[in-house]
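User: tokens in, sequence out, please.
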């Protein structure tokens, strides 16, 4: 049986972005490169959003692997005030096609924040409903920095034992 979890954590950058500076910052680029290289080894996927000097990141994978990665992130000097704000057991990955998706949706996020009663992007204040809304927004968003690079749902399907019907009739056709 799969032991998948979805963990969302928030943190503050230790290298604040100057106002008016647009595009993917160097630290974010390095984090993405590292995640895209290392996460497939542990079948971890997810999404990263950065705004207002805060990271909002979702990690999906086997519980032990996600917990190990979270500890590494908490010790990373590029982050401070690292807090896990949501951990849920899941049956299906929301970001199954990504080792780490990056979304830059400032206008869409601003609109969602306003609709939800938030004055600015302050993820430490988000409740479960707001976290789910953010993840929903990020699910179908286009990542301008890369394309989907994984298919973790196929990996799960290969590792699951076939059901009784499949075992009895696999590859056998009626005569």
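Assistant: Sequence out:
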């Amino acid at each position: 049986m799969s032991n998948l979890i979805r963990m969302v954590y928030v943190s503050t950058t230790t290298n604040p972005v100057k106002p008016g500076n647009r595009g993917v910052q160097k630290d974010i680029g390095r984090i993405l490169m590292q995640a895209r290289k290392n996460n497939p080894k542990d079948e971890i996927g997810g999404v990263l959003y950065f705004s207002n000097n805060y990271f909002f990141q979702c990690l999906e994978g086997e519980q032990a692997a996600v917990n190990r990665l979270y500890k590494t992130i908490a010790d990373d000097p590029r982050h401070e005030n690292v807090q896990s704000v949501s951990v849920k057991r899941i049956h299906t990955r929301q970001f199954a096609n990504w080792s780490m998706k990056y979304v830059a949706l400032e206008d869409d996020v601003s609109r969602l924040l306003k609709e939800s009663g938030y004055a600015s992007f302050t993820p430490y204040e988000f409740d479960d409903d707001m976290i789910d809304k953010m993840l929903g927004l990020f699910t179908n968003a286009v990542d301008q920095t890369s394309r989907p690079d994984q298919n973790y749902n196929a990996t799960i399907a290969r590792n699951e034992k076939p059901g009784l019907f499949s075992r009895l009739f696999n590859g056998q056709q009626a005569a």
